[in-house]
Design goal:
Length: 667
Amino acid sequence: MAPIADTARPPRSALLSLLREELAPRPGRLAAVARIVGCCTVVVAIGMLYQIPLPAYMAYAVFLVSRDEAASTLLTGVVAALAFAVAVALSLLFYTLDASEPALRLPLMAASTFIAMFLVRTMPLGPVAFLAGFVLVLSQTLIDRITNLEALTRLVLWLWVVVAVPVTVTVLVNLAIGEDPARLARRTSLRLLHALAASLRGDVISALPQLRAEAVGLLEVRERAGMLHRRLRGRAAIDTMLIETLAELLSLREMLPAGTPAEARLPLALACEDCAAAFARDGVPAAPQALPDATVLDALSPQARPVIVAMAEAIARFADGIGARRTAGAAPAPSAKSMFVADAFSNPGHARFALKTTIAVMAAYVIYSGLDWPGISTSITTCFFVALGSLGETVHKLTLRLVGALTGGLIGGLCIVYVLPEMEDIGQLSLLIAAVSAACAWVATGSERVSYAGMQMAFAFFLGVMQGYGPSTDLTVLRDRVVGILLGNVLMSLVFSVLWPVSAVDRARASVATALRTLGQLLADDARAKPGPRLAVVRALGQARQFMSIAAFELRMLPARASRDATGGVSMAGLDRLAGATFVVVEQRFGGDVPEDATRQDQAVSEWLVASADRLAAGAALADAASARSGPAPAAPALDAPATLRAAIEARGLLQAEIDHAVAGRT
């Protein structure tokens, strides 16, 4: 998505463009939808046949557990089962303490919410703490409606079954016919390589930010693949290097000037296709001849020559990695990991986030209890599930939840009035569940920009249609659910905009500062050969772009500020080019000792990048471009010098030009 500062399309056109992009078919989407539909239908049939309580929540659990590939689905299912087991045990313990003491129940609910939301931000096992805290708080609210402790205990014990059935069905289906993460990673890598080769052949740049985001996402898929395939664990370091190099190549492609001769681009395209063919068969690629011959290199412009040389160097490293991947040894022993993140107890933002969510949750509970309107208890669920780091992210998720709930509620209401009265058996209900689940799953399998709306469509529909074990006729359930969601939206918006507000613009600024600081470290001589920095830069800029797009949801709830302040007055395209120009410099080889003036220039630029990162983190603009110069530009080599040597000097000039453009606020 384009950043706000660069967007010129009217809102309606942008919305239609977003919907077309998000709802378009993509590889694997239909299969994912089919798995969700099948699991929902089976789970609903089991729930209705054996009259398990809360069948709507059973069906919705399928959406919560399902992921793009089998390993993530398995991990999510294990986390959910563990969290619910902990929550059920703690709920029964709390009932012995506060069943007859509302004055004690409120502090326990508040403490449970605070601890759960704090651990979400500070522990690797945060999802377990989140689900356990959510179920624990929700179960404590049940005592207001079910005063019989025996009946209440039975319902709480049933909660584990309500989760275990859909988790078991979903995990088994995905392990049997789901997407293998190793195949998904390989297929995505090949598609990106072919897209890069096609771009080089046609001299056309298309959706490079999205392709880079997919390359960064490969790292997580690759980690999940190691969970299911032991043989892949020894290749983790090499595969990470390959993913990083692929992301770098996509960044370098954006630096290639339009109109670069085909004679210079075609060898790069052929080398990419050779690497893709070797990777597809898990073989060893032939030595790629990505670098054009000297005659072609000599004829290139000073802007194109260093980029061509940098891409050839990166492709050669990629090919070497594919060959080394076949002979990778055993996986290294896993290093010990800390239970908490490094700033768990030193960063006040974690405690503030937990406190804000706790205030919203308890306010929702007090309001609906005071109104004696238990039907709007979905306000508590809303507060839990939409709490995110910044106001923009929170309101974005609130918006998706509201839109999804209204759409799903409308579908459910129409079915209650016109469809359910004509149904006679569970088979007909299963067909209805399958049809609506397919539509909801299609939206839910989109990107983070719209996927939550699909899940809320399903949730609202299930709550309306499956109110019991027979045809539903009561529309007030749908009304109450939507009112509860509205209440939760209002409370979260007020709390997160008044108490320690964190703007998505602030988070974008922090991500840009991280990218600039990493680029500065990358230019240091001792950091160029280390794996990881390039991927970290691409990831940080991708996060900044996402935060900038989400900032629009903050509307006027925070003090007015220019959206470009997050990037120091530079467009995201300008920052992408600045990163790409740095990669161009890093990939150059002098073929001998690096000239002293080039070393001084690199050091000056490195210091400028770090200083700009510090200034941006403090809310100031980028450092003055003059500080990025150590003196006169590196001396140009003789005309008869090798083209690669000329490219190394020209790369410094290219980077300096991008710095000048960035400071001047130009793309």
